[in-house]
Amino acid sequence: MSMQDITSKTSQLSVSEHVVYVNETTGSDATGHGTVDAPFATALAAVTLIGNMPEEKQEAFKVMVQKTGEEAYAEITASALKKARKAHKDAANKARRAAEQAERQQAQGEAKRMEEQRRLEESSKVELTEDASLPAAKKIRIQDAEAHRGQRVKVFGWVHRQRVQGRDMMFVVLRDGTGFLQCVLTDRLCHTRDALALTAETTVCVYGVISAVPEGKSAPGGHELAADYWEVVGRAPGGDDAISNRVSEGADPSILLQQRHLVIRGEKAAAVLKVRAHVMRAFRAHFDAAGYFEVTPPCMVQTQVEGGSTLFEFDYYGEPAYLTQSSQLYLETCLPSMGAVYTLAESYRAEKSHTRRHLSEYTHCEAEIPFISFEDLLDGIEHMVKDVVARVWAEPETRAMIKQLNPEFEPPTEPFVRMRYEDAIVWLNEHGVNHEDGSPYVFGEDIPEAPERAMTDVIGKPILLTHFPGPIKAFYMPATKEDPRVTESVDLLMPGVGEIVGGSMRIWDHDELVAAYAREGLDTAPYYWYLDQRKYGSCPHGGFGLGVERFLAWLLNRFSVRECCLYPRFVDRCQP
Predict the structure, then answer these.
(1) pLDDT by residue (tens digit) across 224-235?
(2) In angstroms, what CA-CA distances link 241 with 198, 201, 236, 246, 547?
């Protein structure tokens, strides 16, 4: 109790009675005063009240207790009084120690504040100037540091992390997008106001000589820069607005998405984006080596490819138009003039799905190839995936980032499993993978994401799942000659992710394609240009589309494709 509480409660007591009342049934330590009308609930409260009175008054008071189930008050027993006094003494000692500790901490905090203030005042008198007698510093990027060991250089970057060692040494790790570099600041370089107030994400320029770190020590790249001069370029806030308070690894996903512009400064997020850049380059190198031409189809269209329910519609100068679901149809028009073609472009699906593998905007790697068979198509998809992985794996920097993010990854070397759709239905039934209501999957049903991924994860290898029934696939996919129920179609399934590629042969007969439009209830007029491909010298051809974010989720073992693009777009998320 506070002294104010004690004074208030003491004033309520009967001076003539000199009694403090405790009623274990109706009393209250919080609102009681120790009177017969407002008793306490415990003997400890009574003893505490008496114990905080002047000593000359304490002996005059006694404690009367009415125990639960009893009808009258009786004086507290000696043992109960002794126990209550001990508890009061222990609580008093604990409170005293807590007060002393708080006082010490306050004194220490004040001393620290005064010392920091003194150092700041002193630091304002320290001015750094570059030593003109030193060799001119060469501006380099961090990735070039090893090639410039032993030379005086200057490096620009962001403060990634820092560590102060005593009064006369600081270790500052810089980040410039090409790598990380540890800089060592000593003596006067640590005494400036900028040094004392340095915060993460501040941009700086550091001058000095790069040397290999001493044996037994470690630093990024195996070297460090011994600074002889440095300056702040742009300050970053500290305190409540420090970046560590804006984003942290364990923060709610919605916060991390809202602060994505800061999240991508982190090592993992940056590594994902860098690997993505290298993967995009590897796809282009793969297609270039195979003699494909890259084309850039329009993203504003007036036709559908994958069904009208997932179209993003907008007004195009008074006419309805859509964001493209796929560039496939446009790629097919290039076959007669360019041969095999591909594109790396954005596709859009207005699919209200919250799964970890769906985005409303994603990077689509699509290709179309003339004069091929279905087996050629399957071989080409498998070769592409293996070749792209081999290309990024052969780059030491990219390989290191892949191992950082997915330590267990090894490039696929064995042939991909080839499984027909009807065999997948059998597999699901044999392994007890059923609908939520317990019923088995049957031929003709689309296999949802969860059972598809379950099968892929159990098999543990890439699967080229082929020959899907026509009704569950796109209108342009041709039926097989041996079984008209199924199409020459394929999905590539990867462990941990599921489908990353969808492909097929394309209907190349004019009349058959017109019939397919009729089955789907589509007006052929907007597709006149697509039908003309079958009119002016058609040929057997096929193609596929690969979701780059899904490919990255598999390669880097990311839980969601949202981690594999710069600013993910999905249901209810269109910023920053």
Answers:
(1) 999 999 999 999
(2) 14, 12, 9, 7, 37
